[in-house]
Amino acid sequence: MSTPTSDILIIGGGVAGLTLALEVADRLSVTLVRPALDDQGASRWAQGGIAAVLSPDDDLEAHVRDTLIAGDGLCDEEAVRHTVNNGPAAIQWLIDNGVPFTPDPDPAARYPYHLTREGGHNARRIIHADDATGRAVVDTLLSKVSAHPNIKQRSDLTILNLLSDDAGQCIGARGIDIRQRYQTLLAQHIVLATGGSSGLYRHTTTPSPSSGEGMIMAAELGATLMNLEFQQFHPTCLFDPDGPAFLISEAVRGEGGHLLNEAGLRFMPDIDPRAELAPRDVVARAIDAQIQQSTLGHVWLDIQHIGEAAIRGHFPTILAHCATRGIDIIRQPIPVVPAAHYSCGGVATDYKGATNVPNLYAIGETACTGLHGANRMASNSLLECLVYARSCAHHLLMQPKAPPSGNNIAPAQPKANAVDVDTETLTTLRNAMREVMSHHVSIVRSNQSLNAAQAKLSDIEEKLNEFLGNTYGYTEGTHTHPESMRLQQSLKLAQLTVLAALGRHESRGLHYSTDWPAQQAQATVSELSLHHLTPRTMA
């Protein structure tokens, strides 16, 4: 078993992880663990763009104000201002690195790149690369990461857990390679950029979403998890039960798309004066209510009226993808449903990305910085990835390099289990977990549904432990196979999410409870750790 050492170990290769790697690699050695398949993770699938104050007709205070309103009283204003103030420099860094943002064809434009508008924003401030911004950013940054001599990429590993020393400092991570051998990676600083927890749900906006494994890895070392109950459901995911997940960008509504009910009538103007451009929680609940009243199982998103030239110019990726699914968006409306999209909660961090565990950092969707509050505003997610990755990098570059020490030796690890796992059983249990979360812990919640979710998740965990015991002689504290371990981690996060929702006796932002429809006068964050799980629910 090898124990390679680097200054920085980054787990996750989306926009946040790639940005951090590039920002520190000229002076520090970096090991970057990222999926072998580039279509995994949420960054690549981000369509709409990145919000920042770029036009001379916009201003920073307006972006701050819009973000605070969307966050429904739960944003950390200092985190909002830090993000918004550093946004323009982060975008310029991407431009300097060659990201091919869409230019504005108008010779009289006040900013050289096209800016669109999305829900919650009162100005055009979304810079984009057509309707595939995430892919353009990831491809550009990845090409530079691959060419950098000080960045070692590991795409052959599945990280299973983090490692700490006797003083409680994070010193590295343990993973398993494609040959089923355990590997230990040690570093002076460890950064989680592993994504959110949308994969806890059945219907998502990305094909291979994370299920919060990184969050639980941090919690296992004592990190605090915050605001887990605020799971954002994107209002418009393509409705096709037999096909893969596909997001219909917020920008479609930003450019004038109308939501229509079963009768073909617009319904958003009667619900909110911002109509289709209301914040996502408002739009998602409105769509969910229409679906409950109809027989279609979806609503329609219609952009025929904006014209073929505008559709082809702004939404070539959506146009092409829908065509492969038999939908011509130039001549017919798009069937859409809400789907799990973004986790506003995660590992609690400061503006440097630091957690309460020494030497452990979290950036991107894995982290909860306070920026999003109770509801993330459109296109603030990639902005957060960039700003906090750069802040974290600046902090890490200021730290003294630790000399090689014999104290940073990871404990001995067992050999990987050579027995083939029954993946069908694990898949069945994971799907059962997703059904429970989708049915009971979704857009609209109640005490009854959350208590039912709590009981059903415990039953699933008992079945998993029984399966592991019968198959491997499983006992508490041992791990037999990476997929079973990742499922255990996901179940823990699902249970903590339910606990967080049960503890919030109000409706705020993304958390709407029929038992607590009003807001509490005092807005409070929720903080949880693994200690909040009962012995029965602990693996």
TrEMBL record:
InterPro entries the record matches: FAD-dep_OxRdtase_2_FAD-bd, FAD/NAD-bd_sf, Fum_R/Succ_DH_flav-like_C_sf, Fum_Rdtase/Succ_DH_flav-like_C, NadB, Succ_DH/fumarate_Rdtase_cat_sf
Keyword Transferase attached: no
Primary location: cytoplasm
Record pathway: Cofactor biosynthesis; NAD(+) biosynthesis; iminoaspartate from L-aspartate (oxidase route): step 1/1
Record's catalysed reaction(s): L-aspartate + O2 = iminosuccinate + H2O2
Gene Ontology annotations for the cellular component aspect, listed alphabetically: cytoplasm
Active site: 280
Domain FAD-dependent oxidoreductase 2 FAD-binding: 7-382
Matches recorded under Pfam families: FAD_binding_2 (PF00890), Succ_DH_flav_C (PF02910)
Keywords for this protein: Coiled coil, FAD, Flavoprotein, Oxidoreductase, Pyridine nucleotide biosynthesis
Enzyme Commission code(s) on record: 1.4.3.16
A Gene Ontology molecular function term of the record: L-aspartate oxidase activity
Residue ranges of every copy of the Fumarate reductase/succinate dehydrogenase flavoprotein-like C-terminal domain listed in the record: 430-521
Location of the protein in the cell: Cytoplasm
Sequence similarity: Belongs to the FAD-dependent oxidoreductase 2 family. NadB subfamily.
Function summary: Catalyzes the oxidation of L-aspartate to iminoaspartate.
Protein name per its UniProtKB record: L-aspartate oxidase
